[in-house]
Design a protein that fits this description.
240 residues, alpha/beta, Rossmann fold, Arc Repressor Mutant, subunit A, 2 domains, 10 helices, 5 strands
Length: 240
């Protein structure tokens, strides 16, 4: 369990339960921070630190479900395990639909609780790894022009060069130049590596579609025009 040791936030309005939970998790090598209210938790929690949350459903100020929604609005990806003595089907379904890792009812077996916490900790590590991967790829993508982003999007959709060219209103030769530059800027050695990078980074394509891109590279040269003559200035790049 040592390699999974992580911070677990405990939010419950019953001090004896908080004490018992903290003692149990500490005995299993897990750091905890305890709070009696949702507001107290919101004032103290660290959005950037990897963690998970063991949350009661019924709280005196902000309910567990409301707190879950608030955290999502703030961009938190902290996995949540609900532990409540007031469970009902509609609320448990709502919690799970909104991304809760598990929904447990009091009293709960220690083995069941620890298994849920370990699962949440693993999810926290996975979310952090995905976030770092996305940030890394976005840094690379920030070097792409708008047209290069569009070409990468077409490649990820399984389109051939001539299909991408037709969709963008440019010639196939220009698509190949944009593709080669995108491969280089993304630190890849081939189209296959580029597609593997994009496909292994969930969420990157929607972000790329919103990206305006850096100014287009190259100088204007004479190229064979596309039949529909819908080429714009940044579609014409220098071809050696």
């Amino acid at each position: 369990m040592g390699e999974l040791s992580e911070l677990v936030y405990l939010v419950d309005d019953e001090p004896p339960i908080l004490k018992a939970l903290g003692r149990l998790l500490k005995a299993n090598g897990i750091e905890t921070k305890s709070f009696l209210t949702s507001r107290a938790f919101l004032e103290a929690y660290d959005l950037q630190r990897p963690a998970c949350l063991l949350l009661d459903l019924e709280l005196p100020d902000i309910s567990g479900l409301e707190l879950q929604c608030t955290l999502r609005e703030r961009g938190s990806t902290h996995p949540i395990v609900f532990l409540s003595g007031h469970a009902d089907v509609p609320r448990s379904v709502s919690a799970m639909k909104n991304g809760a890792v598990d929904f447990l009812t009091k009293p709960v077996r220690r083995t069941t609780l620890l298994a849920a916490i370990r699962n949440a900790i693993k999810r926290s590590h996975a979310d952090q790894a995905s976030s770092r991967q996305l940030e890394h790829v976005l840094q690379r993508c920030s070097q792409l022009t708008r047209r290069e982003c569009e070409v990468v999007d077409g490649m990820a959709s399984g389109l051939l060069n001539k299909q991408i060219a037709a969709n963008l209103g440019i010639v196939e030769k220009t698509v190949k130049v944009h593709r080669a530059r995108a491969i280089s800027k993304l630190g890849c050695r081939s189209s296959f590596e580029l597609l593997r990078l994009v496909n292994s980074t969930p969420g990157i394509l929607p972000l790329m579609r919103m990206f305006d891109g850096v100014p287009a590279e190259g100088t204007h040269v004479n190229e064979e025009p596309h039949p529909d003559e819908r080429r714009s200035a940044d579609d014409i790049v220098e071809v050696n």
